C-alpha cells in the first residue's frame, strides 16, 4: 500500500513539473493567451493518453512477432510490432518453468553454502561435508572444489552465502549454433571441464554452463 501511494505521488509530482516547465517555456516565447490555452489542452491530452497506456494490460496477441533477437538466461527476446499502432518493441518471453527451476537451484546452492559455513565453523573435515551434501542433494550438490573454495572463504571470516556482485552487465550469447557447438565438443571429449569446453567452442564459461544444464541436461560435468 505504501509503495502504491509513493508511486501515485511520484506521478503527480512529475506531471506538475511538466506543467510548470510548459508554463515557463510559453512565457519565454511570449505566446498569446489563446495559444497558451491550446498548449495546456494538448498537454492534458498527452498526460491522459500516457496514464491510459500505463494502466492498459499488455497481452501477447497484441503484438506480431517479426524476428528473434536472441535467447537470454531467462527466456527469448523477439522483435515485435504492436498491431494497433505499428510501433516496434523488443519483447522478452519468459518460460515460467525455467524461472521456477532456476530459483529452486539457487535456493539449493544457498542452503548448501550455509551448511558448509556451519560445518566448517564446527571443524568438520571437507571430505565429510562433501559426502553429506552428496547424500542430501544427489543431483544438485556442489562439486568438491566448490566446497573447498567456500570453506576457505568462511575460515577467513566471510559471513555471506550470497553470490558476489560482479561489475558490469552480463551478456549471454545463447543460440542454436552455440548449443550445437558445445554438444559437439562434449561428444568428442566426455571428461572435459567447462573451462575446456569454453576454450574449444570460443564461448563464455557462463553460457557453456547454462547450455549444459538447461539445454543438454548434463549435471555431472566438472565446474573447473
UniProtKB/TrEMBL annotation:
<protein>
    <submittedName>
        <fullName>Serine/threonine-protein kinase LATS1</fullName>
    </submittedName>
</protein>
<keyword id="KW-0547">Nucleotide-binding</keyword>
<keyword id="KW-0067">ATP-binding</keyword>
<dbReference type="GO" id="GO:0016301">
    <property type="term" value="F:kinase activity"/>
</dbReference>
<dbReference type="InterPro" id="IPR017441">
    <property type="entry name" value="Protein_kinase_ATP_BS"/>
</dbReference>
<dbReference type="InterPro" id="IPR011009">
    <property type="entry name" value="Kinase-like_dom_sf"/>
</dbReference>
<keyword id="KW-0808">Transferase</keyword>
<keyword id="KW-0418">Kinase</keyword>
<dbReference type="GO" id="GO:0005524">
    <property type="term" value="F:ATP binding"/>
</dbReference>
<dbReference type="InterPro" id="IPR052709">
    <property type="entry name" value="Transposase-MT_Hybrid"/>
</dbReference>
<feature type="binding site">
    <location>
        <position position="92"/>
    </location>
    <ligand>
        <name>ATP</name>
    </ligand>
</feature>
